């Protein structure tokens, strides 16, 4: 053990010990950059049900223009990431709304880790972000987790 020193207040202090290890910024749910991590939005830890039962579809950088901008019905796009806890909280709400408005509104999800071009082009700066499009134009945007009522009212507004 080293010698003690005196602080400016006159109290003794111990000499500095070895530096504590820095905490990792990568959480246990952080995405991996391999082909296995590019999964359906609900197959990446957001939902454990089989893919056949899903009411949300994937959209990618390659399919965004066709599925969103060229859609004949209003489209709700949820931007998410596997490591995002609020995204996991929002997912069941989007699933329920997608089921409720099936055929009148299309609900899609975009993995921002696997698809970086569209979020940048759309000005998405964080997840979760929800965009609502009508006739290829964005009419509403939400950032952060929202309540079912907030999202339902926004969807109802575009159906009027």
From TrEMBL:
Keywords: Redox-active center. One of its GO terms (molecular function) is protein-disulfide reductase activity. Residues 1-12 have a biased composition (Low complexity). GO terms for cellular component: cytoplasm. Residues 45-160 form the Thioredoxin domain. Residues 1-46 are annotated as: Disordered. Transmembrane segments: none annotated. The keyword Iron does not apply. It holds the Pfam family Thioredoxin. Belongs to the thioredoxin family. This is Thioredoxin domain-containing protein. It comes from Raineyella fluvialis.
């Amino acid at each position: 053990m080293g010698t003690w020193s005196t602080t400016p207040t006159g109290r003794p202090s111990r000499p500095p010990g070895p530096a504590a290890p820095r905490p990792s910024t990568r959480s246990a749910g952080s995405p991996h950059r391999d082909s296995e991590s590019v999964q359906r939005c609900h197959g990446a830890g957001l939902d454990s049900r089989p893919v056949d039962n899903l009411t949300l579809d994937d959209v990618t950088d390659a399919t965004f223009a066709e599925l969103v901008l060229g859609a004949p019905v209003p489209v709700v796009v949820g931007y998410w990431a596997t490591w995002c806890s609020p995204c996991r909280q929002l997912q069941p709400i989007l699933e329920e709304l997608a089921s409720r408005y099936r055929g009148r509104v299309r609900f899609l999800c975009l993995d921002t880790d696997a698809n970086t071009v569209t979020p940048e082009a759309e000005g998405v700066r964080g997840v979760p972000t929800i965009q609502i499009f009508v006739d290829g134009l964005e009419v509403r945007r939400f950032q952060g987790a929202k309540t079912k009522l907030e999202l339902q009212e926004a969807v109802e507004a575009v159906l009027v």
